[in-house]
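User: Sequence recovery, please. Input:
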């Protein structure tokens, strides 16, 4: 049975700290960070040279996917979840029972 990784702190606790969310957003939007991301993606991306050897090609694709996932996940941490709409809709659906 596979284990599901758990973040070191609960996600809802992360989003309660609005200052941290804002600081992360500012960091991700900083030009030097965006340039670093672009360089890492370019270096790790697949190339025609990697097609000669399937193992090297697979490793380059894995590295590239890892960078993409990590940067996409960091970006997700800068957007607040919209749980309030879902919960209010669910509650309103059952008001006819009262």
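Assistant: Recovered sequence (98 residues):
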């Amino acid at each position: 049975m596979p284990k599901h990784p758990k973040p070191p702190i609960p996600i809802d606790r992360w989003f309660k700290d609005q200052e941290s969310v804002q600081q992360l957003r500012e960091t991700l939007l900083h030009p030097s960070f965006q340039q670093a991301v672009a360089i890492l993606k370019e270096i790790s991306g697949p190339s025609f040279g990697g097609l000669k050897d399937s193992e090297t090609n697979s490793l380059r694709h894995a590295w590239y996917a890892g960078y993409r996932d990590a940067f996409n996940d960091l970006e997700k941490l800068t957007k607040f979840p919209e749980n309030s709409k879902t919960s209010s809709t669910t509650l309103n659906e059952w008001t006819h029972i009262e």
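Residues 54-76 form the longest helix (23 residues).
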